Amino acid sequence: MDEQHTPYIQEALHHYKEGMGYFTEQMPEVAHKYHEFTEACFKEGSLSKKEKQLIALALSMNAQDEYCMIYHVKGCLDQGASREEILEAVAVTGAFGGGAALSQGVTLIEEAVSELSGDIVS
Predict the structure, then answer these.
(1) Which bin fits 97, alpha (ψ -120 to 50), beta or left (φ > 0)?
(2) How far is Cα 61 from Cα 69, in angstroms, rounded to an integer?
(3) Contact at 8 Å (CB) between 79 and 53?
(4) How far apart are CA 121 and CA 111, in angstroms?
(5) How many Cβ atoms from other residues are within 10 Å of residue 100's Cβ?
(6) 60-104, pLDDT tens digit by residue?
(7) Using an 8 Å Cβ cutoff, are 116 and 9 in contact?
(8) Which of 15, 36, 68, 77 could form a disulfide with 60 if both were Cys (CB 3.0 to 4.6 A apart)?
(9) Three-state SS at 72
(10) pTM of the model as a whole
(11) How far apart, in whole angstroms, are the C-alpha atoms of residue 85 and residue 4?
């Protein structure tokens, strides 16, 4: 990756949050129930919050959902996942999802990890 990153990752996070805010205004009951459900799913349990974020990242890669990939890279980093742990999740997803999943891992996921962790990779 080059050393000059565009603010795409931060813009995508902002765009998602903005869209979710608008949706919440329009459909407050549905949005509340959705947030309540996802918060329950991501609570610490038999699996740690970090493990749950890594699973969500892998699933979002396999689904080719860029917003979720970025959101869950942030979740992984927020829960203390290392670059190596994220890259292992990328590798497992690539083994399961093939080239389409791996292509996201070596591009978008790498850029998101770099931008969101403040780590510039050349």
Answers:
(1) alpha
(2) 6
(3) yes
(4) 9
(5) 12
(6) 999 999 999 999 999 999 999 999 999 999 999 999 888 888 888
(7) yes
(8) 68
(9) helix
(10) 0.84
(11) 24
**What letters, b where the CB count within 10 A reaches 16 and e where it falls short, cover 51-90?**
bbbbbbbbbbbbeeebebbbbbbbbbbebebeeebbbebb
What distance in Å separates the CA atoms of residue 38 and residue 40, rounded to the nearest whole number? Answer: 5
Phi, psi of 46 (to 5 degrees): -60, -35
**Which residue type, as a one-letter code, is found at position 73?**
V
Tokens, residue 67: 């917003």
Q: How far is CA 35 from CA 24, 38, 40, 91, 121, in A?
A: 10, 5, 8, 29, 34
